[in-house]
Amino acid sequence: MMQFDQMQKLTRDGMDVAMRSLGAVSTGTQAAAAQTADYAKRSLEQGSHMAERLMGSRTLDAALQVQAEFLRASYEGLVSQATRMGELASNTAKEALAPVESFAARSTRSA
Hints:
Layout: H1 4-55, H2 60-110
Helix pairs in contact: 1-2
């Protein structure tokens, strides 16, 4: 049977683990927000540049070429951003779960 001191230490350790885990989630969320803001800024700049080029097009073929280049670049940027966000989410989950896994392993051993 667990003593009061053991239960108190286990509770304190559990709170410490929860705080470290939430800290990792917070850091990951901040990184995701920063990456999303950067992507939005780049997309807006690319869209503005494309609109300028489109207005400067003299022929329909030139306009279609500008639009095709923009769509290709936009798609590649989206795929790249989605990959980065997926990696960030995966890393954040690993970092958030690491303290919980070690706590669970210690708690199981000491029980």
